[in-house]
């Protein structure tokens, strides 16, 4: 029944889309497929909001459940035989559920690479068991002969900042302990932390914390951040302006995710659009995300900074929402001395993504602090493309980006 309703709703959405067709940027290929994916996502969210209106629970919880049903149907249609190459287990690291992928190959006793992976989803969606994340972890583990630990941290609406951060930090410290690394046959000199979108946010924050923690005898060797979200003070960077209405992730959705994560009043959304929430931030902090100096001219284009002066209510926003200035939530605000201790980095961004400039500015700040950085910006890329490598929503740019990511880890870890 649910599948039938979803199919009908998607068909109606596609019909409306056809009538109101607005082309995507010319650089993006396979546009019809991207439109269809966006229609499916939006339809699931609309159905979930109807369920919430009917008193059937929070719309995010309903969205998760509907997505699982749809994903289960796709999995039945595409399931293949288990090659037996990997041992996959669900365990708990210091109270935090994780899924572990271990290669089952000859040469036992030889130490392997290790990777702590943190999934995205706006701190509200996603799971290591989701199809894209599960398959991605399997491919990473197989292609790099690597032990992958995927963290199942708590999500909104059940949890807010700093709970997801603390979950991931606890899992990271547990994994990095010499005893646990030895148990899974991981080389303590070759352990990475990585994540996409909100997972990139958590990965960057944890990389900073571990780098500064003198009690940790083992630290991350590298960090690999996939279109990370790194700050909530400027929602009018050039990429936010350029891609404000982009499919998959637009500016409105990203502001909503931030407000939810930080426990802010959702009615403040319009003020955040106008940057009124950052009008009282100290200049030295704002300089750490000043895109007029941190971005290359080709990304600044002719865009102008937006410095909104908000109503009296917004003058207290930094006290009411302290997470706005907390580096555990906004890693781009970290001091240069902290960045200087961070591991070398791979930072992937997409030209047609509101988060592009967050990643580019972080790459610049890390580089200025003396950290070796490989920054890769995909001119035909869009948000979430890194996870879109499987039928029926495999995109050329996603396949290419995933291959480049694996290649960098092979050469640097």
Brief rundown of the structure:
The chain has 413 residues and is α/β, with parallel strands linked by helices.
Shape: globular
DSSP helix count? 17
Order of strands across the main sheet:
1-2-4-3-5-6-7-8
Poorly predicted runs of 5 or more residues: 1-20
**Superfamily at the CATH H level of the largest domain?**
Alpha/Beta hydrolase fold, catalytic domain
Order of helices and strands: HHHEEEHEHHEHEHHHHHHHHEHEH
Biggest beta sheet attributes: 8 strands, mixed
Rg from alpha-carbon coordinates: 21 Å
User: How many domains in all?
Assistant: 3
Overview of this structure, please?
α1 crosses α2, α2 crosses α3 and α5 packs across α7. The protein has 413 residues and is an alpha/beta fold. Helices cover 44% and strands 15% of the residues. The N terminus is likely disordered. The protein contains 17 helices and 8 strands. The relative contact order is 0.12. α4 links the parallel β3 and β4. It folds into 3 domains: 70 residues; 219 residues, 3-Layer(aba) Sandwich (Rossmann fold), CATH 3.40.50; 88 residues, no CATH class.
């Amino acid at each position: 029944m649910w599948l039938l309703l979803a199919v009908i709703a998607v068909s109606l959405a596609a019909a409306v889309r056809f009538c109101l067709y607005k082309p995507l940027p010319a650089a993006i290929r396979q546009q019809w497929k991207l439109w269809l994916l966006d229609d499916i996502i939006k339809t699931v969210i609309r159905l979930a909001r109807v369920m919430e209106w009917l008193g059937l629970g929070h719309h995010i919880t309903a969205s998760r459940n509907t997505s699982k049903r749809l994903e289960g149907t796709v999995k039945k249609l595409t399931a293949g035989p288990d090659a037996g190459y990997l041992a996959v287990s669900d365990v708990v690291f210091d109270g935090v559920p994780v899924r572990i992928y271990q290669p089952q190959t000859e040469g036992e006793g030889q130490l392997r690479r290790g990777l702590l992976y943190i999934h995205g989803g706006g701190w509200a969606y996603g799971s290591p068991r989701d199809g894209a994340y599960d398959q991605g972890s399997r491919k990473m583990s197989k292609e790099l002969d690597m032990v992958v630990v995927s963290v199942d941290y708590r999500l909104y609406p059940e949890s807010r900042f700093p709970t997801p951060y603390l979950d991931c930090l606890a899992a990271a410290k547990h994994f990095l302990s010499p005893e646990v690394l030895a148990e899974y046959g991981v080389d303590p000199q070759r352990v990475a932390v990585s994540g996409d979108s909100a997972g990139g946010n958590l990965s960057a924050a944890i990389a900073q914390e571990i780098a500064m923690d003198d009690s940790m005898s083992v630290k991350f060797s590298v960090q690999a951040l996939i279109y990370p979200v790194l700050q909530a003070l400027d929602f009018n960077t050039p990429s936010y302006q350029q891609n404000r209405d982009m499919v998959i992730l637009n500016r409105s959705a990203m502001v909503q995710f931030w407000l939810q994560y930080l426990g802010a009043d959702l009615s403040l959304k319009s003020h955040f659009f106008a940057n009124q929430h950052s009008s009282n931030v100290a200049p030295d902090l704002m300089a750490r995300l000043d895109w007029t100096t941190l971005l290359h001219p080709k990304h600044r284009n002719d865009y102008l900074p937006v410095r909104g002066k908000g109503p009296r209510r917004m003058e207290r926003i930094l006290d009411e929402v302290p997470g706005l200035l907390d580096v555990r939530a906004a890693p781009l605000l970290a001091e240069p001395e902290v960045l200087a201790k961070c591991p070398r980095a791979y930072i992937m961004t997409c030209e047609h993504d509101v988060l592009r400039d967050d990643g580019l500015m972080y790459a610049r700040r890390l580089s200025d602090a003396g950290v070796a950085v490989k920054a890769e910006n995909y001119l035909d890329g869009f948000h979430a493309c890194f996870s879109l490598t499987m039928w029926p929503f495999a995109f050329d740019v996603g396949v290419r980006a995933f291959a480049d990511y694996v290649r960098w880890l092979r050469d640097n870890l």
